[in-house]
TrEMBL record:
It is a single-pass membrane protein. Residues 105-218 form the OmpA-like domain. Gene3D superfamilies: OmpA-like domain (3.30.1330.60). The chain crosses the membrane at residues 16-34. It comes from the Bacteria. It comes from Microvenator marinus. Pfam families: MotB_plug, OmpA. This is OmpA family protein. GO terms for cellular component: plasma membrane. Belongs to the MotB family. InterPro entries: Bact_OuterMem_StrucFunc, MotB-like_N_dom, OmpA-like, OmpA-like_sf. It is found in: Cell membrane.
Length: 220
């Protein structure tokens, strides 16, 4: 009488295929997640830029912003410095305690303390700076005139081999890179400068800060 084949604990070929497929899918999902994390900033930036004007136009208190942007289309680059300053104050109203917005020598200046946008003592942008810089980038693109990003250091000597020149320029470059690479603002529209601790702010204090200056348009 023939014997029945005994059961074994060895996995069948079909079981191996199922297990291999499942592991492959898990790895694929993991790499997709990593890729998404790597591109989240640029995607978020594009979303902010595309929706900024519409969002502000639909919120109470931003009706003038829409009018100023319409003026830009009617007379390109035609905003006066007073209009630009009013636009910035309307949009950045909730952040004015952290920002200093004023007009000096016919140019609108947005001054941001380094401690507000950089990691402590460093040159890398802090995540808490993204919201403010995203908003400023949208305004720069909407108004459509060139700006200059200036870096300034305080008088405290930097630890060698770094210098105050290094910190002021590197911080300005980080903001410049965020505007140009993260928000696709033309590089030719964003100047860059570092002044170490040689220039005081409008109150006469030499503090570490980054200033974004809206340059006057060149009139014929």
């Amino acid at each position: 009488m023939p014997r029945r084949p005994q059961k074994t604990d060895e996995p069948k070929e079909d079981d191996f295929i199922v297990l291999f497929t499942a592991l492959s899918m898990i790895l694929l999902a993991f790499f997709i997640m990593l890729n998404s994390m790597a591109t989240i900033d640029s995607a978020r930036s594009r979303t902010v830029i595309s929706s900024l004007v519409g969002t502000f136009g639909s919120m109470p208190g931003f009706e003038k912003q829409r009018t100023i942007i319409e003026l830009d289309h009617e007379r390109p680059g035609g905003q006066t410095q007073g209009e630009i300053e009013r636009t910035l104050r309307q949009i950045l109203n909730g952040e004015l305690e952290e920002l200093d917005i004023y007009t000096q020598d016919g140019r609108v200046v947005v001054s941001v303390g380094s401690a507000l946008i950089f990691e402590r003592g460093g040159t890398e942008l802090s995540p808490k700076s993204f919201r403010t810089l995203d908003t400023l980038a949208g305004i720069i693109k909407s108004i459509g005139i060139p700006v200059r990003v200036e870096g300034h250091a305080d008088p405290a000597p930097a630890k060698p081999p770094k210098s105050n020149w290094y910190y002021s320029t590197a911080r300005a470059a980080a903001v410049h890179r965020y505007l140009v690479s993260g928000h696709q603002i033309p590089a030719g529209s964003v100047e860059l400068a570092g002044y170490a601790d040689f220039r005081a702010d409008r109150h006469g204090n030499k503090v570490a800060r980054v200033e974004i200056i809206f340059l006057p348009e060149a009139r014929p």
